[in-house]
Amino acid sequence: MSATPTTRPTVTEREARQVAEAAREQHWRKPSFAKELFLGRFRLDLIHPHPLPADEDVRRGEAFLAKLRAFCETGIDSARIEREARIPDETVAGLRELGALGMKIDPEYGGLGLTQVYYNKALALVGSASPAVGALLSAHQSIGVPQPLKMFGTPEQKQRFLPRCARTDISAFLLTEPDVGSDPARLATTAVPDGDDYLLDGVKLWTTNGVVADLLVVMARVPKTQGHKGGITAFVVEASSPGITVENRNAFMGLRGLENGVTRFQGVRVPAANRIGPEGAGLKIALTTLNTGRLSLPAMCVGAGKWCLKIAREWSAAREQWGKPVALHEAVGSKIAFIAATTFALEAVVDLSSQMADEDRNDIRIEAALAKLYGSETACLMADELVQIRGGRGFETAESLAARGERAVPAEQMLRDLRINRIFEGSTEIMHLLIAREAVDAHLSVAGDLIDPDKSLQDKAKAGAQAGVFYAKWLPRLIAGPGQLPRSYAEFRHAGVDLSPHLRHVERTARKLARSTFYAMSRWQGRMETKQGFLGRIVDIGAELFAMSAACVRAELLRSQGDHGREAYQLADAFCHQARLRVDALFTRLWDNTDDLDRKVVKGVLAGTYEWLEHGVVDPSGDGPWIADTRTPETPRPDVRRTIPE
Q: Hey, what's the signal peptide range on this chain (predicted)?
């Protein structure tokens, strides 16, 4: 039996970036609204009129949602999941019977074949009943076995595994390791070729669904040898294979029912037929899968926003203070308005991105990443505001509220459950960098060699000529546009509300954003990648502009359909006014900030300069290393894997 590796690949910062760069999609074969937005081009024609699902997709999707709603109301006991810190077997059995494990799997393989739009609506519904159940379904289908096989699997692999995933088997995705997060170049888990098999060794951390999974997607490094290209590679692994041990079921501040653990592989034999794609394609497969897979998380954030709005409305109308409902006090009312407007905009972002994913006419890698970033951040803010609106009752647990005779509203649980979304599937900080890289791709394509220290003078001269041609055409277009014409976007004036000024603002601001990005690249050149504070603000501005655009387009769609059009226009108007204030503040902070001072303070903290400031407290932390030792323990740990009966 092979031994678990004790050393990790040693890579430089530059090598780590090269690995990440090689894994991303290099070309833009389809148009992208968000990419154009960051380049200063407001392509409203790419999202308006709002794309719509086919009638048959709507019929099938609504029929399933009706069944799912009935199950959520009777078959999911959120309080029990919170209390017992696990999803009951009968709940999983009910999901299997409904076909919920196969929502995104093609009917050819026994799945329901729902569109991305209705899959996300289903996750929003389930997530409102129990975020832990929503996470189980999302991890299984968005990043687990079904999605990468759908996109990259062979016909034989699809026939073998997809019917199981659609009906009975739960899947998980295993990439993270105790010392490897968003820098996969240092991945230590190995898959060593051995005849027609690979021998898998290593330890994976935070394996969502890993405690109960039947099938795993595992990322491992194949050594480069004769006949083997090597590199990070994806495999489908049977969770019951000899040599696999779930060493721990992890517990978190929220999502107490999450079946997330630590999984050890020791000489696990995996057939070469279970490899997804060629050797070395694992990271590309993972990132491509996440292009649409990321939409599941903001979809559940939409569900959270809707629930926060419902509770805020009902509570603020019932609770009186100083002679009137608390909702009518401006300090509370502004919070309710924020929740209502943001929920409307976030649903607009998710539905628009999902429909574009279904139509496959646009490249939505930036849109999906923006939806994940924006949804995870705003949902936390909405839940926090709900806790504040509820006051002491917001901080009190639902169980305690019920014990003393009041409605068991789990506001504090919602806040705890949502907090992980700012870390899941790419932290906010990583999402800023990922989106920023895509946003400046056009610049790097024409001028990247100019700032690359490894390029020759000849290469730099060639890049300079290419850049000159590109910028001679591009820069003049950033001076003026439809946003300066008072009659532009006049079709967005209805029901006494005029959204056209907001769209003109988006068009003008997109050009300003592009000019700011170009100026920063000219100023910092090769150091641009180190200006993470600046890049984060650039991305946040783009996210607000995307949300404003989506909100206006959705309002017009609802108006044209006669479905709450007047109210939709009011919500879109409120959201855009709120967003414009945030955008103004972000632009100010592009150039007027404390980034340089912060860097000095950080260096001082790390050097111990301010260690005296820590005096006067005790540290209740336990003993142990900051990062777990992944070597095989002398005394094997018990396997805590739980099999959910069919």
A: none
The answer on pLDDT for 164 being more than 60 is yes
Q: How many CB atoms lie within 10 A of CB 415?
A: 23
Tens digit of each residue's pLDDT (9 = 90 or more) over 235-291: 999 999 999 999 999 999 999 999 999 999 999 999 999 999 999 999 999 888 888
Give the residue among 70, 126, 81, 92 at the shortest CA–CA distance from 410.
81
Please answer whether residues 537 and 586 qualify as being in contact, where contact means their C-beta atoms are separated by less than 8 angstroms. yes
Q: What is the pLDDT of residues 320-335, one digit of tens each?
A: 888 888 888 999 999 9
pLDDT at 535: 95
Give per-residue pLDDT as tens, 560-582.
999 899 999 999 999 999 999 99
3-state secondary structure of 172: strand
Pairing of strands 171-174, 190-194: unpaired
Which helix H or strand E contains 558, and what residues bound it?
A: helix 532-560
Spatial contact of 584 and 537, defined as CB atoms under 8 Å apart: no
Containing 235, the helix (H) or strand (E) segment is strand 231-238
**Strands 215-222 and 171-174, bridge-based pairing:** parallel
Q: 425 an active-site residue? A: yes
Rounded CA separation 546/298 (Å): 14
pLDDT at 159 exceeding the cut of 50: yes
Cβ distance 171 to 239 under 8 Å? no
Contact in structure between 357 and 295 (CB atoms under 8 Å): yes
235 forms beta bridges with: 218, 275
- CATH 1.20.140.10 residue spans of the chain: 284-430, 457-596
CB 549 within 8 A of CB 503: yes
Distance between alpha carbon 21 and the CA centroid of its chain, in Å?
19
DSSP string, 413-465: HHHHHHHGGGTTTS-HHHHHHHHHHHHTHHHHHHHGGGG-TTS-HHHHHHHHH
What is the C-alpha to C-alpha distance for residues 417 and 257, in angstroms, rounded to an integer? 10
Backbone angles phi, psi at 242, to 5 degrees: -55, 140
Active-site annotation holder among 279, 425, 438, 556: 425
Beta partners for 324? 321
Both tokens assigned to 410 = 């789990």
Answer whether 238's CB lies under 8 Å from 159's CB. Answer: no
HEC readout, 321-376: ECCEEHHHCHHHHHHHHHHHHHHHHHHHHHHHHHHHHHHCCCCCHHHHHHHHHHHH
Query: 169: Cβ–Cβ under 8 A, 6 or more apart, which residues?
Result: 101, 145, 161, 213, 214, 215
Q: What is the CATH number of domain 457-596?
A: 1.20.140.10
Backbone angles phi, psi at 190, to 5 degrees: -115, 150
Residues in a beta bridge with 220: 233
The CATH architecture of the domain made up of 284-430 is Up-down Bundle (1.20)
Cβ atoms within 10 A of the Cβ of 475, count? 13
